[in-house]
Amino acid sequence: MAAKLYGGAYLSPFVDVVLDNLSSILENDSVLNGNYSSLELLGRLQNCLYDVGPVLDDAELKQFTDKRVKKWLVDLQHALYFADDLLDELSTKSAIAATQRDPGNSSSWSRLVDSYIEDTGDMEKIVGTLESVVRRKNYLRLKESTKVDMSWRIPSTCLVEPSEICGRKEDKEAILKLLLDDDAAADGNLSVIPIVGMGGIGKTTLAQLLYQDDQVKENFDFRGWVCVSEEFDVVKVTKTVIEAITSSSCNLTDLNLLQYDLKEKLSRQKFFIVLDDVWNENYDDWNTLLKPFQKGVKGSKILITTRNKNVSSVVQTVSPHELNLLSDEDCWLVFSKHARLSTVSVENPTLEKIGRDIVKKCDGLPLAAQALGGILRGNSDIRYWNHLLKSEIWELSNDRINVVPALRISYYFLPSYLKQCFVYCSLYPKDYEFSKDELMLLWMAENFLQPVGKKTMEEVGGEYFDELIARSFLQPQYRGK
User: Fold this and answer.
1) In Å, what is the CA distance from 179 to each residue of 60, 175, 208, 318?
2) Distance CA 298, CA 317 (A)
3) Which of 124, 135, 138, 199 has the greatest CB tally within 10 Å of its CB?
4) DSSP string spanning 224-267?
5) Is there a contact between 373 and 366 (Cβ–Cβ < 8 Å)?
6) pLDDT score recorded for residue 322
7) Concatenated DSSP letters for 122-161?
8) What pLDDT sits at residue 424?
């Protein structure tokens, strides 16, 4: 089934496998037994693999917006399959020849290996085809060690319009209770409260609602909002916190001076800080960042938003608050507000029916409902609404809708060994429910699981599964008894 998978997520580890097989053959002098033409061909094959590996991440990102890159990945995978089959057959024939080797006659064994190589006229063709495919990366302008384009992202701010928020009343009340509880800290004066959920589910919006709540304003001496995003720089974050609570620029650049200054400003104060869109899960980084915050008055709070449960487990002092998807009705309210449906539906009630069908495609994501509603804002053309209904959300231009890039960021930061496991799940129908054991066995059959120390494959597979849930790529289903 893995043969149906295309893209860098699958090809990156596959290239490594082919390289390992090739290296084993080249390191074994007895396999080719001085057949210099074959050694030259395999050397060219090795160069191709080294050349293509570093650009696969870039190709994986560009395949979503460039059909030529997607076609290139398909061609590359086919070429790699032939190369892998060639190496497997060469190894097998060499092993067979070795069993038939006459210890007293090395030339007879050499002829057995050479006969296979000489009879395989496809060897030159296989290597030549792969070289041709790899050369095309230059025309496609694929780059090494590329970074995902974040230029479309606007840093979050603390401002929000409460009337446009739907379906988060219970979530707000639950976290508000923690924010107003001065005894919420399990140890010391500081409480760290994580909001966890997949991209586009409304974590930042909920944090904005809480930040602007009148009870919160009255409960704390001062508040600060920091959009952390992907680049977790302790110096930068510390400096931004100082600027947020003083409403003035900070010219310090030394971390020691910054932290001392922040500690002095926070001491004997009850503060509320929001760290929005956090990705870093390194304990040492967090331990360093949080040192100045320990000097605040009892009841001080830090609220973080993150897509990754592993982040929350590093910093939390209370259990994380996990956001669920919105109901279709709440999604409809978000959609209709941004589409201004109340003004156009009077002229054509049919739009409401089409709109509700569009909302079902949002799968409970308020970001998707908002973005699609924005596209249709003030538009009463039934044909256009039907066109949007029949379009897949990822076919829409990134200039008009940021849903796909927003979700793609999570995928970009996924480790390669998890990417191929997640991509494998796409072979199954939408909303297909996997059992943990079933998925682990499927991954094991495809050789996706990488051995770690003395852990069994089942243990490794279980960790992969749990990691994908922690990063909100798989949604657990809880059933009542």
Assistant:
1) 42, 6, 14, 11
2) 14
3) 199
4) EEEEEES---HHHHHHHHHHHHHTS------HHHHHHHHHHHHT
5) no
6) 93
7) HHHHHHHHHHHHHHHHHHTT--SS-----TTPPPP-S---
8) 85
The C-alpha atoms of residue 48 and residue 132 are separated, in whole angstroms, by: 10
β-pair type (321-322, 222-229):
unpaired
Q: What is the pLDDT of residue 399?
A: 56
Closest CA to 201 of 316, 362, 61: 362
Q: Give the predicted TM-score (pTM) of the model.
A: 0.71
Helices (H) and strands (E) in the chain, counts: 23, 5
Supply the pLDDT for residue 342.
Answer: 64
Cβ distance 273 to 226 under 8 Å?
yes
The CA-based diameter of the chain, rounded to the nearest angstrom, is: 96
Identity of residue 19? L
Query: Can you read off the two tokens belonging to residue 215?
Result: 């009870």
Dist. CA 461–CA 262, nearest whole Å: 44
pLDDT value at residue 206: 95
Q: Are 450 and 417 within 8 A, CB to CB?
A: yes
Mean pLDDT per segment of 10 residues, for the chain of length 481 residues? 49 82 74 68 90 86 83 92 86 65 51 51 85 93 69 76 87 94 74 92 94 94 88 89 90 94 91 92 92 89 92 88 92 88 63 90 87 84 87 59 63 79 81 86 88 88 89 69 38
| Residue 27 falls in which region: left (phi positive, over 0), alpha (psi -120 to 50) or beta | alpha
Residues belonging to the chain: 481
Q: What share of the chain is helix, strand, coil (3-state, %, to 5)?
A: 60, 5, 35
Residue 394, both tokens: 């990822």
Which tokens is 223 given?
């508040």
* CB-CB contact of 186 with 318 (8 Å): yes
Contact 250, 280 (CB under 8 A): no
